[in-house]
Design brief:
The chain is of the alpha/beta class. It contains 12 helices and 11 strands. The strands form 2 sheets. The protein has a 7-stranded mixed β-sheet, with helices on both faces. The model has no long low-confidence stretch (mean pLDDT 97). The structure holds 6-O-phosphono-beta-D-fructofuranose. 6-O-phosphono-beta-D-fructofuranose binds next to loops.
């Protein structure tokens, strides 16, 4: 049996660990694994690498992806899907394990609908995939964001300043909410709910009157600044980090300073939280996800996504992997109780 593995979309902590998990399982099952370079681009251009457990043994704790990734969308290329199918046949792949977020898994689901044997593994720091409790990479990104927000808080306290941190999360505010709570931020603004900068101003002012400085977190997906002219990737998403002009953080910092007269500073954490090494949760869960994916491939269960359900790894239909998951009102109402 010969199985291909590809990583698509934004990188995250745990991608090498999941490949290692797949390779550990493959070693036990006597399955050959081929690494596809740079996401779907590798299957359009036939760029592959032979991989085995020995090559990934020491990579469990590394960030990024040794296979490489890209935001290439075969559905946007002329005859893209057919080229992918042809190359899978040429490579003699019995199955393809696609590791990615909703974009990558969307292409995977399309291939499955077109008769290809596909298994999905959900990853994204944004944690916005419905078919899994958590997507791997999320908690490592949250840990890194938490550490940086804490640093901002420390310097903010020293100077009596308001600190505003902008955190990744294009459509969903999961990272901002979790990191904000974990770091003890005083206000968090996420894209799912109406963003009221005056509510932030009220919190900051009240805290100042009590002799306290404030730390504010804003998700990059919030629309304080217009990005209508922003460049888009092949899946149609705004390239927020490439947008010109003000960021949410700088806009909000200026607003707070104007309204309160308090010295305010803005920081965009950006890609730093994505490049971090996986924490223990992401190392262990990816290892189990990898094992489950190769086991499903070996036993001929295709069109599925392996997913985290509590402490267990389960299989769900691949079509669920492309559904989005946002911070829901009930969860947010609880979380908000910490922002004061
Ligand atoms: O992978 C998800 C994500 O990190 C989003 O949070 C962010 O908006 C986007 O990717 C950034 O993409 P790129 O690395 O292409 O700039």
């Amino acid at each position: 049996m010969k199985i291909g593995v590809l990583n698509g979309g934004g990188d995250c902590a745990g991608l090498n660990a999941v490949t290692r998990g797949i390779l550990a399982g493959a070693a036990h099952l006597g399955v050959e694994v081929i690494g596809i370079r740079n996401g779907w681009a590798g299957l359009l251009e036939n760029r592959t690498v032979r991989i085995d457990y020995n090559m990934f043994e020491e990579l469990i704790g590394t960030g990024g992806t040794a296979l490489g990734t890209s935001r290439t969308n075969p559905l946007k290329r002329k005859d893209g899907l057919q080229t992918v199918v042809n190359n899978m046949t040429l490579l003699g792949l019995d199955c393809l394990i696609a590791v990615g977020g909703d974009d990558t898994l969307g292409v995977a689901a399309e291939l499955w609908r077109n008769g290809q044997k596909i298994i999905g593994v959900p990853k994204t720091i944004d944690n916005d995939l419905a078919g899994t409790d958590y997507s791997f990479g999320f908690f490592s990104a949250v840990d890194e964001a938490m550490r940086m927000i804490e640093s901002l808080k420390t310097t903010g306290k020293s100077h009596g300043r308001v600190m505003v941190a902008e955190v990744m999360g294009r459509d969903a505010g999961w990272i901002s909410a979790f990191a904000g709570i974990a770091a003890g931020a005083n206000a968090v603004i996420i894209p799912e709910f109406q963003s009221d900068p005056d509510e932030v101003v009220r919190i900051v002012r009240e805290r100042h009157n009590e002799g306290k400085s404030s730390t504010v977190v804003v998700a990059e997906g919030v629309k304080f600044v217009s990005r209508e002219k922003a460049e888009r990737d092949e899946f149609g998403h705004e390239l927020i980090a490439k947008a010109q002009g003000e960021t949410n953080a700088s806009w909000l910092a200026r607003y707070i300073e104007e309204k309160t007269g308090l010295e305010t500073r803005a920081t965009v954490l950006g890609h730093t939280i994505r490049g971090t090494a996986p924490n223990s949760y992401d190392r262990v869960m990816t290892s189990l996800l990898g094992l489950k994916a190769i086991e499903a491939a070996h036993e001929g269960r295709y069109g599925i996504m392996v997913s985290i359900r509590g402490t267990k790894i389960e299989e769900v239909p691949l079509s669920e992997g492309v559904q989005k998951k946002y911070v829901d009102p009930a969860t947010w109402n609880e979380m908000k109780k910490f922002f004061m």
